[in-house]
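Figure 2 data, in text form.
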Amino acid sequence: MQHSKTIALDGMGGDHGPSVVVGGAAISLERHPSLKFLIAGRAAEIEAELAKHPRLRERCQVLPTDIIVAMDDKPSQALRRGKGSSMWLALDAVKKGDADVAVSAGNTGALMAMAKLILRPMPGIERPALAALWPTVNAECIVLDVGANIGATALQLGDFALMGAAMARALFHIELPTVGLLNVGVEEIKGADEVKQAHAWLKNTKLPLVYKGFVEGDQIGQGIVDVVVVEGFTGNIALKTAEGTARQVGQYLKEAMRRTLFSRLGALLASGGFKVLKHKMDPRRVNGGTFLGLNGIAIKSHGGTDAYGFASAVDLGFEMLESGLVDRLASDLDTFHEALGAEFDKKS
């Protein structure tokens, strides 16, 4: 029998609160019947939603609180006023060992700040990174950082590479994932100094990954590597640009297929293909970003998603847990830092 895992949920996070969180948990429970849940938030609102899902209610405990982190709260405000909030209780449950994973659709900056304070970064990690799944022509790749940090040093980019590779092993079951650094060109003379230094380290250090060098923005969706490493400012812009472009293309197709009688007939004949395309481009299918580099698993769901999308974020946390991500990641980072330390010792 499969061992039970417990997922702690911020029941009040996101644009829709308990209706989406509870609905998403119910969907995920169907996929993973061994799961248990802790849901933090306003008890009356959560219980009203749980009444619609009797099976989930049997597998769930409510952590009552009336303290909520608003979507527009600054991280500093959330840290000052958010102790005991639904977001705080979900993360604290992981720290205490009452839960294995925390999932929130709430304020990204607040979640990052709280997760860093409560779960603490792994030794040697200055800045945890937010990693996201990115649809490609083949399947998916992992891109990090997509918004947890503004800027990154060469060492932090190297850490991101190791963390992304560990996530790829967990999700894609590839022992030696391929990794590339996002840059303005593939030539070694191009790019910021930090990117070029990280490139040199990754190319010359023996690591549990296959380093492929620089990749450009138009190559992310081609799936030429399993992991794309970038600092958070650029990564967040790239992610939102891709999401917007996907919606734009979808709108163009919809308008084109409705334009004439023949185009509507063609759309009807091609409906099967369009269903496949819609599924492939559906952002809910890959919803959920992971804060990597912490002593615990914290998942950020998109704030505007529905229950189906929130379930994807819960599923992501489950897969990370099943793979032993945190322990494997800690080992990989130790190897990388020791290798860099030995290189510095030789030069000194």
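Caption note: Residues 344-348 have pLDDT under 50 and may be disordered.
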